[in-house]
Amino acid sequence: MSKSTDKTSATHTGVKRPIPFSRAITGALVAGAMALSASQAAVAQDADPLKFVAITHIVAADPFGNVLKRGFEDAAEEMGVELLYNSPAQYDTSQMLRMIEQAIATQPDGLALTMPDASAFAEPVREAIAAGIPVVVLNTGEEIAGEIGALNYVGQSEYRAGKMAGERMKEAGVESPICINFAPGQSQLDARCKGFTDAFDGSAEQISTTQDPTAITNAVLAHLNSSPDTDGVLSLGSLATDPLINEFRSQGAMGQIAFATFDLSAETLEAVRDGEMLFAMDQQQYLQGYLPIISLALYNRYGLKPTNNIQTGPNFITQENAEQVIELTQQGYR
After folding, report:
1. Is this prediction's pTM over 0.70?
2. Are residues 221 and 83 in the same domain?
3. Is the pLDDT confidence value at 61 over 80?
4. Is the pLDDT reported for residue 209 higher than 60?
């Protein structure tokens, strides 16, 4: 099989461009393999560039994916890596499986991928590792990464993040919230809602929808109309948050209910800054794209690898710090 040539889902990276700000990798990222800077690694790169494949489930309509892709691209440029990035136009397990199979067939020097469905993706990823392809799991799949033999996992602990969101809402006085799951069955979203519900001792309710913005807003409005005691709404990502912001504003409901979200968008940050939303949870997806490529390059060239999973979030964005994040969002880093 050859690499996908579907221009809607695959893009080659490596275009040279200036990096607008210097990056500091702090805390646990400085330890072990990450102590070797990207510039040092680039100087010592092989005559033939490394070839990596990155595959994610992040659909094109989700602004989250643009920042993640920026991280992949910047790391590939800095480390002298040829990178092929694939993601589906719409989330589809069978399409992702085909992408993984195509990647394995090309025998890349490294594979970075999300694993939203461990039962579907574990076996082909094990096959990749057995074939000698080092793998870094990112964003989703923390629970399976070590078991299948991945070098490490880069992302946030989704259950813990969901529970932290619930605890923060409880501190704000919320008693009867809902969690909006726009892709039931995706492990990371299910874990977020589970953690959130556990923070409320099981009293929070999950509303399952599709990824269609109209379906999301209709489902939430129907619940709020039938359950007027609902006093909190947690969205699991921008696909749901942005249309809900627009709908709540049109209904005059912004500020009348505690509203919070995972992940960032320009509209979300403005709502948090203006006090219309309680908080947004930033999992720093730029790092989720950037660090796997750095890690794979260091492993290929020097046999270095982190000994622990790398937690990139969550960071709480509130009214107090939203303004400073807005500029970085406009630049494509948050």
Report:
1. yes
2. no
3. no
4. yes
Quick one: 206 and 124 in the same domain?
Answer: no
Please list the residues that pair with 280 across neighbouring strands: 261, 317
Which residues, other chains included, contact 320 with Cβ-Cβ below 8 Å and sequence gap of 6+? none
Q: In the chain, how long is the greatest CA-to-CA distance?
A: 65
Q: Which domain holds residue 229?
A: 158-282
Name the nearest CA neighbour of 256 among 267, 247, 269: 247
pLDDT at site 196:
98
**Shared domain check, 55 and 144:** yes
Burial readout 284-308 (b: 16 or more C-beta within 10 A, e: otherwise): bbbbbbbbbbbbbbbbbbeebbbee
How far apart, in whole angstroms, are the C-alpha atoms of residue 203 and residue 89? 35
Q: How many domains does the chain have?
A: 2
Encoding tokens for residue 234? 């947690």
Q: Are 26 and 79 contained in the same domain? A: yes
Residue 276 has what pLDDT? Answer: 96
For residue 69, being part of any structural domain is answered with yes
Separation CA 221–CA 233 (nearest Å)? 11
Answer yes or no: do 63 and 24 share one domain. yes
